[in-house]
Specification:
By secondary structure, the chain is α/β, with parallel strands linked by helices. The chain has one domain: 2,3-Dihydroxybiphenyl 1,2-Dioxygenase, domain 1 (Roll), CATH 3.10.180. The protein has two helices and eight strands, in the order βαββββαβββ. It has helices spanning about 15-25, 75-85; strands at about 10-15, 30-35, 40-45, 50-55, 65-70, 90-95, 100-105, 115-120. The strands form two sheets. Strands 1-4-3-2 form a four-stranded mixed sheet, covered by helices on one side. A four-stranded mixed sheet has the order 5-8-7-6, with helices on one face. The mean pLDDT is about 95.
Length: about 120
Amino acid sequence: MIALGRAAPGVPVRDIARAVRFYADVFGMDKTFENGEPVQFAIMKGGAAELHLTLVSGDVGREHNVAHLMVEAGVDELYRRCQAAEGATIVKPLRDAPWGLRTFVVADPDGNRIDVGQRL
């Protein structure tokens, strides 16, 4: 039997420092690792969630979600933080979805779409 562990999606960014600030300030994540001089890669961790930020010059973001983050509580507060965050764009507004999640989609300053959900 196979037992999968954590998943850590890679998120391409044009500015590592800006991306680290965004995920720290908005999502409350901590930078747990960085590599390169100048920094080319950083790991952001919050609870069980982990994102691997990778510097990709000229990246233009995606038209699909690059990650889905579940929150145990506080999705409304997180939505307000995303609305107020410099460079962030709400792609899909906060709503109660028929599949049992209170959910929204936000694009970070690099255009990476993050789907956020909390069980109803």
